[in-house]
Amino acid sequence: MKLDIEPILELDKKHRELLTQVEQLRHEQNQLSKEIGHVTGEEWTAMIKQMKALKTRLKELGPELGLLEEALRNALQSIPNLPAADAPVGRDESENAVAREVGKKPAFDFKPKDYLTLANGLIDTERSAKVAGSRFAYVFGDLARMEFALVNLAFDTLIPHGFIPVNPPVMIKPKVYEGMGRLAGDQKEERYYLSKDDLYLVGSAEHTIGPIHMDEIFDAADLPRRYVGFSTCFRREAGSYGKDTKGILRVHQFDKVEMFVFSLPENSEEEHRFLLSRQEELMQLLKLPYRVVQICTGDMGFTDAKQYDIETWLPGQNQYRETHS
Q: What cellular component terms from Gene Ontology apply here (predicted)?
């Protein structure tokens, strides 16, 4: 994307100048409030007049400052994270780089069936469509049990590596969501907003794990602090019209295991590699062929500096599909 930083800098300058002016007026107002109790007569009358003038001026500048603050906040949210120096430069997913392929793709002497056929009634999108609309599903029987078995496998594998298990909230306040950078750019279109409650439904467990220590300060000795969370996630899939309309690859509601780490900035690269290795450990335990894909700048998430996806080989589709990120 192209970003002209000059208008944002000019907006910041105007905001700082007006904020300084407002703070000076408030300071004068506070000083007069302290002094007025110690004067009488004409001096008292003059101070009252001065205080009224200050109040009027602050009332005039308040809305202007509010508009500038909102404009600056919106402008700053239009700036994505800076990509890492070694992130592949590209326009879209076609320019992502395959880092490695692991495992042997199975060979069959017949045409493999797709997962929806193999599920044999364990996935029902017709009944769910009657109840909730498109891109939802009922998952039954052994397939429902398999999901929880996979969640338990993930937790049992990650906890020995120092991860703390957590079931986080699935709703989040707008200001907190904004602070996580998850309403920036076009991400807001993906979110479900509950206007009556002024809350968003999360699109991932990380969205409420990230602010878990909001307004707290870590001791360096307590880092890294690693969490593994499980939650139901909600996404509009706004940009996926016509894609994967059958099955459960793109749905509005799904469950996900998420790893999240608080670390020192200088250790973030090492922790990122550690997280990727844990994902690969899980894939190798499942003995599924997969590939690691480094995402290019044009396809990378708005808040990401570096992004890897793991894509699992699906014989029924004869292609790799993203299962981890």
A: cytoplasm
